[in-house]
């Protein structure tokens, strides 16, 4: 790259940046042919839950339907409409958009580094070199293939987009302060610190960390060494304190309020406590840093459920060394703010970015995508080093190019795996022998591509090796049902796993319900309703499962479904009533009535709807997306319309079945007055969903 002394050749810079983007595109191109995975299905299927998103009513129902956290992540949901408006849909458009978003983020990161470099007093050619190398290493980092090509992780990419935009705006606002444009500067800082934070948080909650990330920059690379020589410095400092201090204070309040909730959820729904998670996360962070700085030829992909939590400081033995290592890094980052600002910025930005997902919140212990934003400035010290006099020789410049080419080659290899589902499943199954999810994923793909016998044999070995993992044993039962029968050994492995399981009560309940069709008729010999009842009894006798928050409703729902399948509609209806009284909602009443009607009991289904209509209105508590979604549905009359239509059809079904109206009056077919007034009457167009 030809650069004039002290200034930047803009053409050469743009050519270099374009070449970098082209290389990144070519490296990721093999992954476009890949398939949806795991969390993609439950999160993207909402695109077609109630038909295509083809009009404004459907749009508002869709963007407010998120339930991953209180924010609902509406911006991320909205972005998926770029690729599809219904479900099922092909995966390639989603992956294509993710890659383009990653390239955009690379450009924004390069721009942000360029801005910061200029504010640090670097010459334009130095700032350009630092920005190209620092952003290039991040852009071609193999670890981020599992973020970019995992469609649902667009939720992790969008906060990075708005964080980089925020840093660019913040630096521009700082420049405005330097030339005395106070109003313009404060407006720009407000947009950077408040508006970008709001938008980033609507993509994923870790966007709330944006003010803290700006504070990390302010404490290091944006720290003025000649503040006395610049005008309006007092106003800038006051503005910075207010604009960053207020959202950081709100973040602190949120963390304090979230602590007791996290402790409760971890104690009931996780196999570890919050304290054990806090002991474990330094090990996880140390492994992240190793993967970032020493990329591996093979990645564990999206599977980290095999990681064991630290039980104390010495078990496993890496716990205490990791805590010491991470603590020393953080302390060094703070103490080195003035002497080594670029290194301090990389350290403080990284750990500030990990504050939510790698702290006390009871999430899974590890995931690669959690590094996407925190590691954005991880390699800026490397780029800065290449601006020093000792790195100006041709061999060092060649080394920088070689490093980027090496990373691009590794990324291409990773992306090639992501573009081949069979290779992906086989490789991840081999790399993660102790991951139940990886073994199930590998067996499912193997069953579809190489036949059931081989997949069943492989998964049976995994079930015997992991006797406390119902996910493996129950999937083994599913695969055997596809072949026509379940053998006694596999069924005993399933029952045994339910006695030993420590988590997964909701998945178990859902499996029991979805297995009912296999247990009726002759679709799967060896699996009966009584066998499923035995499985439910085993789960309910497991204290580790029954201590979990919410297990009662899940198992009650499964029990009701089993009673209904076993020809015991009255018992099912009684359990449905209990569930509805405990958690009244239109969707629950609708599903229960549909289930009873499908089983041939419209009179019981009608009773469910009538009882629900008599219940007091149930309002969602707190300020969250679920409450807004419920308001949207009420405003549109969505459930009222559906419940009215269902009530009408049930009235007719009862009349046909009994020869009487639901209130016991004999039918007069010729009179045209065949039913009492529906409690859901009074809407303008009951046929419109």
Strand-helix topology:
Layout: H1 10-28, H2 40-44, H3 56-63, H4 74-80, H5 92-119, H6 124-139, H7 145-148, H8 154-178, H9 182-201, H10 210-219, H11 233-269, H12 274-293, H13 319-335, H14 341-353, H15 380-385, H16 394-418, H17 421-431, H18 436-450, H19 452-465, H20 470-483, H21 488-500, H22 505-514, H23 516-519, H24 529-540, H25 543-546, H26 551-565, H27 569-582, H28 586-598, H29 602-614, H30 625-636, H31 638-658
Helix pairs in contact: 1-5, 1-6, 1-16, 5-6, 5-8, 8-9, 9-11, 10-11, 10-14, 12-13, 13-14, 17-18, 18-19, 18-20, 19-20, 20-21, 21-24, 22-24, 22-26, 24-26, 26-27, 27-28, 27-29, 28-29, 28-31, 29-31
Number of domains: 3
Q: Strand count, sense and closure of the main sheet?
A: none
What is the number of helical segments per DSSP (H or I, 4+ residues)? 31
Mean of all residue-level pLDDT scores: 88
Q: Approximately how much helix is present in the residues?
A: 55-70%
Structural class from helices and strands? mainly alpha
Principal-axes geometry comes out as globular
Our Rg estimate from Cα atoms comes to 29 Å
Q: Tell me the fraction of residues in β-strands, as a range.
A: under 5%
Which regions have little confidence, pLDDT < 50, spanning 5+ residues? 1-6, 667-677, 682-689
Termini separation comes to: 60 Å
Number of strands: 0
Task: List its traits.
689 residues; mainly alpha; Serine Threonine Protein Phosphatase 5, Tetratricopeptide repeat; 3 domains; disordered N terminus; disordered C terminus
């Amino acid at each position: 790259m030809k650069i004039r002394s002290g200034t930047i050749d803009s053409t050469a810079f743009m050519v270099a940046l374009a070449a970098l983007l082209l290389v990144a595109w070519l490296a990721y191109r093999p992954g476009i042919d890949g398939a949806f995975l795991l969390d993609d299905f439950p999160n993207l299927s909402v695109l077609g839950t109630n038909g295509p998103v083809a009009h404004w009513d459907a749009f508002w129902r869709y963007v407010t339907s998120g339930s991953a956290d209180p924010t609902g992540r509406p911006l991320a949901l909205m972005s998926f409409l770029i690729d599809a408006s219904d479900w099922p849909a092909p995966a390639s458009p989603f992956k294509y958009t993710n890659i383009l978003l990653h390239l955009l983020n690379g450009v924004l990161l390069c721009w942000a580094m360029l801005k910061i470099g200029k504010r640090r007093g670097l010459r334009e050619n130095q700032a350009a070199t630092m920005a190209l190398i620092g952003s290039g290493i991040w852009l071609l980092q193999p670890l981020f293939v599992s973020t970019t090509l995992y469609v649902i992780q667009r939720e992790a990419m969008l906060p990075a987009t708005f964080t980089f935009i925020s840093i660019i705006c913040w630096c521009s606002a700082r420049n405005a302060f330097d030339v005395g444009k106070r109003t313009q500067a404060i407006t720009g800082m407000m947009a950077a610190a408040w508006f970008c934070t709001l938008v980033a948080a609507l993509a994923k909650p870790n966007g709330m960390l944006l003010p803290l990330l700006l504070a990390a920059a302010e404490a290091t690379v944006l720290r003025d060494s000649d503040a006395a020589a610049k005008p309006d410095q007092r106003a800038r400092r006051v503005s910075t304190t207010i604009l960053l201090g207020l959202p950081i204070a709100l973040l602190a309040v949120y963390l304090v309020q979230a602590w007791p909730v996290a402790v409760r959820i971890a104690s009931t729904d996780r196999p570890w406590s919050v304290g054990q998670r806090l002991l474990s996360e330094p090990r996880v962070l140390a492994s992240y840093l190793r993967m970032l700085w020493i990329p591996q030829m093979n990645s564990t992909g999206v599977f980290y459920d095999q990681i064991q939590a630290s039980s104390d400081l010495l078990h496993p033995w890496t716990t205490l060394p990791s805590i010491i290592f991470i603590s020393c890094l953080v302390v060094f980052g703070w103490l080195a703010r003035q002497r080594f600002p670029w290194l301090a910025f990389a350290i403080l930005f990284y750990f500030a970015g990990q504050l939510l997902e790698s702290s006390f919140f009871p999430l899974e212990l590890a995931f690669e995508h959690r590094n996407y934003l925190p590691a954005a400035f991880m390699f800026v010290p490397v780029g800065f080093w290449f601006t020093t006099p000792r790195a100006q020789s041709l061999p060092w410049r060649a080394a920088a190019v070689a490093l980027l080419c090496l990373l691009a080659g590794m990324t291409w290899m990773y992306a090639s795996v992501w573009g081949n589902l069979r290779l992906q499943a086989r490789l991840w199954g081999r790399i993660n022998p102790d991951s139940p999810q990886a073994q199930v994923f590998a067996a499912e793909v193997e069953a579809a591509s190489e036949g059931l016998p081989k997949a069943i044999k492989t998964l049976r070995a995994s079930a015997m090796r992991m006797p406390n993992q119902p996910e493996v044993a129950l999937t083994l039962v599913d695969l055997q049902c596809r072949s026509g029968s379940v053998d006694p050994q596999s069924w005993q492995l399933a029952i045994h796993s339910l006695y030993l399981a420590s988590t997964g009560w909701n998945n178990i309940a859902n499996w029991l319900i979805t297995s009912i069709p296999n247990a009726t008729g002759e679709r799967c010999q060896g699996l009966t309703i009584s066998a499923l009842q035995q499985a439910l009894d085993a789960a309910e006798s497991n204290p580790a499962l029954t201590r979990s928050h919410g297990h009662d409703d899940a198992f009650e729902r499964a029990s009701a479904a089993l009673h209904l399948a076993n020809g015991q509609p009255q018992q099912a209806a009684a359990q449905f009533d209990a569930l509805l009284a405990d958690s009244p909602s239109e969707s629950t009443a609708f599903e229960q009535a549909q289930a009873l009607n499908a089983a041939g009991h419209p009179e019981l289904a009608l009773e469910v709807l009538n009882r629900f209509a008599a219940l007091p209105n149930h309002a969602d508590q707190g300020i969250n997306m679920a409450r807004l979604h419920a308001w949207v549905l009420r405003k549109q009359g969505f459930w009222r319309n559906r419940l009215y239509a269902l009530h009408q059809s049930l009235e007719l079904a009862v009349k046909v079945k009994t020869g009487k109206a639901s209130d016991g009056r004999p039918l007069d077919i010729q009179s045209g007055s065949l039913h009492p007034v529906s409690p859901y009457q009074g809407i303008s167009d009951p046929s419109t969903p």
